[in-house]
Amino acid sequence: MVDGSYDLVVLGAGSAGIAMAIRSARHGAKVAVLEPGLLGGTCVNVGCVPKKAMWFAAELAEAQRIAREVGFDLEPGELDWNAFVARRSEYIHGIHASYRRRFAELGIELVAERGRFLAPDRIATPSRELHAGHVLVATGARSHRDTSVQGGDLGICSDGFFDLRACPRRIAIVGAGYIAVELAGVLRALGAEVTLFVRGQVLLGGFDHELGAALAQTMAARGIAIEYGRSAARVTREDDGYALAFHDGSLSRGHDELLWAIGRRPATDGLGLESAGVALDAKGYIAVDEWQDTNVPDVHAVGDVTGRLALTPVAVAASRRLADRVFGGEADSKLDYSNVPTVVFSHPPLASVGLSEEAARGVHGDAVRVHHARFRPMLGALAHSDERTLMKLVCVGEDERVVGMHMLGTGADEILQGFAVALKMGARKADLDATVAIHPTSAEEFVLM
Q1: How far apart are CA 351 and CA 346, in angstroms?
Q2: Which residue, of 146, 222, 304, 338, has the fewest CB within 10 Å?
Q3: Contact 139, 271 (CB under 8 A)
Q4: For domain 4-143+265-326, which architecture applies?
Q5: What are phi and psi of 412, to 5 degrees?
Q6: How does DSSP assign 71-96, residue by residue?
Q7: Which distant-in-sequence residues (6+ apart) come within 8 Å of 28 by Cβ?
Q8: Helix (H, G, I), strand (E, B), or coil: what is residue 127?
């Protein structure tokens, strides 16, 4: 028996689901959101938000050491991890409350249950059945351990990082992407001895290779051990901690903690997608077109469950544009996935927008021109640090249209947002050259190359 009819039923209350629900309700749609867990999904609870909080803690730990170096009479102290986690949790609870308020204000019904398809327009929960004019699948993706490895169920994944209540003395991190790099930097700054085990030969393979290599050098200089070509064959827990055996015959042991940062898997199990006829791609993600539509009419998918640019702002933007098209009368509304800016909250942060040098040369060949700036930022120089900031412009053609901007260094996370607007608008290097610098800053180097 159908208990209610809705214009939109949303499966999952992460960034994509919440954004679609709110925008659709503002267009007048009757909306139900089905979410058995915490509001906000990965980003708010075990992703962007608590990660950035821990990054701030790590930055403050480093700031103490810099302050002492430049002349402040202080002794750097350790983080009271439990007290900080309490503050972090308080902040996150505030986000949960704000979502609930907006749902109430807009008449969005929140059902604290998991939904599954009975048919393309019928969704069942453990207690009821709903009829839906449209369905959005926004269940995200989950972190995981490498269970293909003997003993691979040992240790924690990135979700487990947020359950830590003290800094490990010695930690092994397996991975080479965003999460591995970010958590390695946080833990090192907070006092851990960190070893990063990388299956291949590079960090951040999807980014500009020069920036990835520079970050690896900087991480090593900060005391993070990076071991390349390490494919785990076996993990054991011994008296002195975790031991990792690798296919090349090497062994690393004595780690207090083991963290797997090997990517995420789409959360599609138990959704009844087969009952609706929704197709998956070869990697198990929900297949969608440029409009966020699946192969089934009026069934849509957005966010990490689709495998397209797993970034919170992307999920939010795509959902809002989908709502504008479906309920707002904007027939051409869809997200342009090109030139999306992003930041890796490493230490220091790495920011990027547009094409890497490698990707640009693959498209434009010899028409690519590259400009660099490499320098010691002022505070680093005052603190007698040898760490360099690296900035890079990737340009194309005689008019040197900017197709890529990349930065590794303090402030990259804040600096590149504005420059991303210029790139999106088709800026040329001459436009940057014609812009007067703000001095003394690191950002000015982008207009002084």
Answers
A1: 10
A2: 338
A3: yes
A4: 3-Layer(bba) Sandwich (3.50)
A5: -55, -35
A6: T---------HHHHHHHHHHHHHHHH
A7: 327
A8: coil
233 strand-pairing partners: none
Residue 203 DSSP class: S
Q: How far is CA 205 from CA 48, 302, 397, in A?
A: 20, 24, 26
Q: Which two tokens stand for residue 81?
A: 């991890």
The residues facing 137 across adjacent strands are 11, 301
CA angle 327, 333, 334 (to 5 degrees): 115
pLDDT digit string (tens) for 180-214?
999 999 999 999 999 999 999 999 999 999 999 99
CA gap 389, 40 in Å, rounded: 34
CATH of domain 156-262: 3.50.50.60
Catalytic one among 96, 372, 384, 439?
439
439 is catalytic: yes
pLDDT range class, residue 4, cuts 50, 70, 90: confident
| pTM for the structure as a whole | 0.95
Give the span between the Cα atoms of 427 and 403, in whole angstroms. Answer: 9
The answer to whether the CB of 306 falls within 8 A of the CB of 286 is: yes
Instruction: Give which of 136, 127, 118 is closest to 31, Cα–Cα.
Output: 136
Structure tokens at 168: 């490990």
Quickly list H helices, 229-311: 273-276
d(CA 50, CA 43): 8
- Kindly give the residue spans of alpha helices, DSSP state H, lying in 335-387: 357-364, 378-382
Instruction: Choose among 294, 274, 234: nearest CA to 117.
Output: 274
What CA–CA distance (Å, rounded) separates 209 from 202?
Answer: 8
Question: Distance between CA atoms of 37 and 164, rounded to whole angstroms?
Answer: 20
* Number of other residues whose CB lies within 10 A of the CB of residue 279: 13
Tell me the domain boundaries of the chain.
Answer: 4-143+265-326, 156-262, 348-447
- 348-447 sits in which CATH class? alpha beta
- 3-class SS at 26? helix
